[in-house]
Amino acid sequence: MSRLPNPTRLSVACVLCVGLICASGCAIRLAPSYDRTVVTALSATTEELMTFFASVSSGTDKATFGERKPSSDSLIGKLDAIKIQSAARPVPRSQFEQLLGLGPKMDASPQALQRSQPPSVAPVDLMSRTIVKMRDTDSEQGVTAIEVAAFKQQIAISMDQALTYEKALER
């Protein structure tokens, strides 16, 4: 009959192994790499969004929607492109997964893989959906000044979140 190791000895051995792995110089990444193109695109789109909101700040009329549709569509396209660029960067696994060499399973669901997107993807997606909602409301009935302010506030919050995260990656 084999003798099991003392739990204290086993704990010490585990701590020493993890300590040796960490001290051996292996770098553990916790965030995706900085991508200047994502930050540049977000910054340029911020300016376009705020210019667009300034042009409709007093509200809109359904009858003149055709004049604004190209701007709305362009902004939606730019935001969707930024979302794809941001999501395309690989996100490192957690420290625990890296130390143990674990990764996503081959049969992982799309929802499980989606959890490993950079945090900036969700706010950019929300901005796109917000502009879609504003465009659709504008085409159906026009948008009041109060509604414009609400849409603008949602965009400002989301853009702040995305830019803050992306700019923090530059080290």
Descriptive report:
This protein has seven helices and no strands. With 171 residues, the chain is mostly helical. It has one domain. Helix 2 (36-55) runs antiparallel to helix 3 (65-87) and helix 3 runs antiparallel to helix 6 (121-141). The protein is elongated. The model has no long low-confidence stretch (mean pLDDT 82).
Summarize the structure in short:
With 171 residues, this protein is mainly alpha-helical. Helices cover 68% and strands 0% of the residues.
List the helices and strands and how they pair.
Elements: H1 7-23, H2 36-55, H3 65-87, H4 95-100, H5 110-114, H6 121-141, H7 145-168
List keywords for this structure.
mainly alpha; 0% strand; 171 residues; 68% helix
Distance between the termini: 55 Å
Q: Helix- and strand-based class?
A: mainly alpha
- Give the SSE order as H and E letters: HHHHHHH
Given as residue ranges, the uncertain stretches (5+ residues, pLDDT < 50) are none
Please report the total strand number as a whole number.
Answer: 0
Helix count equals 7
Taken together, the total number of domains comes to 1
Cα-atom radius of gyration: 24 Å
Beta-strand content bin? under 5%
Mean pLDDT value: 82
The largest sheet, given as strand count, sense and whether it forms a barrel, is: none
